[in-house]
Each structure stands twice: as structure tokens, then as C-alpha cells.
Amino acid sequence: MPLVQHLLELRKRLMLAALGVVLGAVAGWFVAPTVLQSLSAPLRGEGSTSRLSSATYTNITSAFDVQLEIAIIVGIVLSSPLWLYQIFAFFTPAFTRTEKRYVFGFFFSAVPLFLIGCASGWLLIPHIVTLMTGFAAHGAATLIDFKGYLDFALRLMLVIGIAFVLPVFLVLLNFIGVVSGVAIMKAWRIAILAITLFTAIATPSADVISMLLLAIPMVVLYFVAVGVTIVHDRRVAARQEALLSSDVDAL
Q1: Spans of all domains in the chain
Q2: CA distance 3 to 196
């Protein structure tokens, strides 16, 4: 397609993805109080030994901002099958019929991986609260900015969800022959730098520990993807060698 048609196609995909997020956010607005109650449980010391005094809103609009943010994040999670499909569908016209089978196969892997990643972030939140507040001096009160805590918790969920999906795209590019596993491996320095910058932006707080807690799983998943692509390349090379040997024997 000409460039203009590609841009029009991209706009259509983005609009559909945005519409899905908006509709999901409408549903998220009604479940936001329940989500808020669950996310605030670690701050109340439920199932935790953290030394917390209280969680506070620092300005008059913070409570509304928190509920709106929860609604948007819930909308992103609920609409993940739609916007992930739009991402894959935008690239499928450039693929062959065989490659399209790979694309849709990886799409059905990406959705559950994103949801599993978000769920993993959700389960990690109480442990992170316990770990971080455990550094407080004995007898010291820990006052939590509730909006700042929610920013951290919700972004943590999304970042881990995205971290679970990114290796799928690397493996997909390898399976359709765009990039080799060795090339992905050689780019490990650039990948780690990109992951570090991404987690630095995604982390609401400026502390290094929070950034590392997000970066480490992404780095691990990157090297898992490297391992999968290298094994796949070796299998493809072995099949091609066996096919070449059989052709030589036939001659």
C-alpha cells in the first residue's frame, strides 16, 4: 500500500484500540471502588508486617484522580484482546499466508501472557509494600501518599504485563525470518539499555530499587526469548541440512 494508506490504516487501528480502552474504562469506573479496596489492603497491614501509620490524599482532587486512573487501567486490561489484535492486524497484510498463521498463533499467546503479567504484578504489590516499608527505622511512622502508591501499583501491573508480551514479538520476528536469534543475542547491551530507560520512565518514584524491581523480570524474559530463538534457528538449520543431504543422495 502507499504511505498514505498505511497511515490511514494505522489511524483506524488506533481509533479502534482507543474505543476499546474507553469502553473498558467505563466498566472500570464502576469496579474502581472494589479495585481500590483490594489495592489498599497492603497499606492497612492485611497480610503484612509493614510499619504503616496512614495513607493520605495530599490535595482535594486526588480521590477523583485515583478513581479515574483505576478506571483507565482497568479499561486497558479489559480491552487488551482488542488492542493487541489491532497491533498484530496492522502488520499482517505484509506477511505471507504461512507467516500470518504465525502472527495469529502468537496473538493467542500474547493475550494470556499480558493478563498473566498483570496478575503477577498484582500479586507482587503486597510483598513490595512489606519489603520497602521494612526499611523504616524502628518506631518511625510511615506516611504514604495514596495517589503516589496507586501510581506505582498500577504502573507496576502494566509494565510487568508488557514485559511478558515483548518477548513474544521478538520470537515472532524470528519465526517469520526477520531477525535471527544470534542477532537478538548480539543486541543484548542495547536491549538492557532500552529496558532500563523504559522502566525509569514507567516507575513513578525516582528510587533505583523500584526501577530494578521492574527491570529485572524484563531482562530475564528477554534472555528467555533469546534462548527460544536460538533453539528455533538451530532446528531450522538442521532441517535445511537434512533436506539438502536428501537432495544430494537423490542425485
Answers
A1: 3-250
A2: 33
Cell 505471507, located at residue:
96
Query: What cell numbers appear for 158 in the block?
Result: 502494566
Whole-Å CA distances, 236 to 69, 176, 196, 206: 46, 12, 33, 45
The dihedral formed by the CA atoms of 52, 53, 59 and 60, expressed in degrees to the nearest 10: 110
Whether the pLDDT of residue 145 is over 90: the answer is no
CA proximity to 228, closest of 186, 170, 189: 170
Cell numbers 501491573 label which residue?
A: 157
- pLDDT value at position 54? 60
Quick check: 195 and 212 in contact, CB under 8 A?
no
For residues 134 and 50, is the Cβ–Cβ distance under 8 A? yes
Which three three-digit cell numbers place residue 29? Answer: 469506573
Q: How far apart are CA 81 and CA 108, in angstroms?
A: 9
- CB count within 10 Å of CB 174 equals 23
| Alpha carbon distance, N-terminus to C-terminus of the chain | 43
pLDDT at 50 over 70: no
Tens digit of each residue's pLDDT (9 = 90 or more) over 61-99: 888 888 898 999 999 999 999 998 888 788 777 666 766
**pTM summary value:** 0.75
Q: What average pLDDT does this structure show over 145-169?
A: 83
172, 179, 170: which is closest to 225 by C-alpha?
170
Please state, as a whole number, how many other Cβ atoms lie within 10 Å of the Cβ of residue 94. 12
In the predicted model, is pLDDT for residue 35 greater than 70? Answer: yes
Q: What's the length of the chain? A: 251
- Provide the phi-psi class of 139: left if phi over 0, else alpha when psi is between -120 and 50, else beta: left
pLDDT digits (tens, 9 = 90+) for 176-190: 778 888 898 998 899
